[in-house]
Design brief:
Layout lengths: L6 H5 L1 H8 L47 H4 L4 H7 L2 E2 L12 E2 L11 H7 L6 E2 L4 H9 L10 E2 L35 H10 L32 H5 L9 E4 L6 H8 L3 E5 L7 H8 L2 E3 L14 E7 L8 H14 E15 L2 H11 L4 E10 L8 E9 L7
Parallel strand pairs: 3-4, 5-6, 5-8, 6-7, 8-9
Antiparallel strand pairs: 1-2, 9-11, 10-11
Helix pairs in contact: 5-6
This protein binds 2-acetamido-2-deoxy-beta-D-glucopyranose (2 copies).
The site of one 2-acetamido-2-deoxy-beta-D-glucopyranose has 3 residues, from loops.
């Protein structure tokens, strides 16, 4: 039973899920393109809207003609970034090519209006203060976003983080955040919004580090759906859970608690009406700005643990969820743990759809607790699953 849950928090899980589950993969920097020649071709201080097509050096050498419709009138900076670029040292065995094609999400060009606005800026100048636009584009599937050659919006007088470990539990300075995209314009507003604002927001009370956030996962023995971190870690030999990922991890309290136990956790998060990524970084743990749609940026069989609370739920299309669960399985090492924390669905969805789907991936069940959720009324027949799953140590392939 889960009667202690805050109903507002729960009703917002949809938004929560949607926002929190993302981060842009870092595109790995290919240093070879810079170390041999200093003549990188920067077009500066020219509005991209008036830039001619990229210089011939940048321009795509079209080998196939199927780009011709989509390339029409695309922003010049977009073409500059995405067009195949000649490797300065010629043919490279690793690429099996003499050129490289920087990646963007396939749907980027489907949203021309947003893309045109996003890629209109002065090269070498200041980027527009357009985080809302960027996130909207990303959530529509333009992920990873194209890179831009401009300086991102930043506070006029940036205030550096508190020293670690103080930074973990102290509200950072308002001057560490660009507030333009958010309803709240300071941390005081965010800390108090659970009390003062009626509007629904993701993770509405998460910024209050002295509230519920401080107690999460810390019980001596977790009860029912609420497992504790220590009971989960105790499933494995001490010290063998060292690195992992929290998908849609709010303000990254999970990562902070794990760090106290010498476990390094990266936290994916969107910035849905709150500066989640800035806040996570201020606390001294690592935010990953990638959505739940993107392939996880880790190699196969590498992570010791993947955790996700509230985000993986019935708002996610079934096929996407199927791919996502397989991706979690992929990145976990054999013997690694998948802590599916408060998966939400309604009534017979659980028996008919989600239990079979989750069970089909190939994890072993360590814990599997199903509970009704009553906060919005029993007639809604809402359900939670909290599960601790393990990738098989042998024959996981
Ligand atoms: C880019 O802008 C900076 C000022 O922000 C300037 O100092 C620099 O010369 C510019 N670079 C080029 C190549 O124009
Ligand atoms: C974390 O690591 C440090 C240094 O290796 C060690 O002193 C400390 O006891 C560890 N803490 C826990 C909770 O394992």
């Amino acid at each position: 039973m889960d009667s202690t849950q805050n109903p507002k928090f729960l009703t917002s899980y949809l938004f929560f899920a949607f926002l929190l589950a993302s981060s842009n993969l870092l595109t790995f920097f290919i240093s070879t393109s810079f170390d041999s020649s200093c003549t990188f071709n920067q077009q500066t201080n020219t509005p991209s809207t008036v830039l001619a097509k990229p210089t011939p050096k940048y321009e795509a050498i079209q080998e196939s003609s199927d780009n011709t419709q989509t390339d029409e009138n695309l922003p010049s900076e977009f073409l500059a970034f995405t067009s195949p670029q000649k490797l300065p040292r010629g043919f490279n065995k690793n690429f099996n090519s003499d050129e490289i094609m920087p990646p963007i999400g396939r749907p980027c060009t489907l949203f021309r209006d947003l893309l045109d606005r996003y890629m209109s800026y002065n090269v070498n100048g200041s980027c527009p203060d357009d985080e809302l636009l960027a996130q909207k584009l990303l959530l529509k599937g333009c992920e990873p976003l194209p890179r831009r050659r401009c300086h991102p919006a930043a506070p006029q007088e940036y205030v550096e983080p508190y020293p670690f470990p103080e930074s973990q539990w102290r509200t950072p300075s308002d001057f560490s955040v660009v507030w333009t995209a958010f309803t709240c314009k300071n941390y005081d507003c965010l800390v108090n919004r659970a009390r003062n604002q009626r509007a629904f927001d993701d993770c509405k009370d998460c910024f209050d580090l002295n509230g519920r956030e401080r107690r999460r996962w810390t019980a001596k023995n977790g009860a029912g759906l609420d497992f504790s971190i220590d009971e989960v870690l105790a499933v494995k030999k001490a010290g063998t859970i060292r690195i992992g990922l929290d998908i849609g991890g709010g303000v990254a309290t999970f990562a902070v608690r794990m760090r106290e136990r010498n476990v390094t956790i990266l936290t994916t998060s969107m910035n849905l009406n709150g500066p989640f990524n800035s806040f996570i970084a201020s606390r001294g743990v690592i935010p990953l700005y990638v959505s739940i749609s993107q392939r996880l940026p880790f190699f196969d069989n590498t992570l010791d643990i993947v955790h996700s609370m509230h985000v993986l739920s019935n708002w996610i299309p079934e096929t996407l969820l199927h791919f996502l669960l397989f991706d979690i399985y992929r990145v976990l090492r054999p013997g690694g743990l998948f802590w599916l924390d408060h998966f939400f669905c309604v009534g017979d969805q659980f028996e008919k759809v989600y239990a079979p789907l989750i069970e089909s991936i190939g994890f072993n069940k360590v814990k599997w607790i199903v509970g009704r959720k009553f906060d919005r009324g029993p007639e809604l027949n809402e359900m939670y699953l909290s599960a601790l799953l393990m990738k098989p140590l042998k024959n996981s392939w």
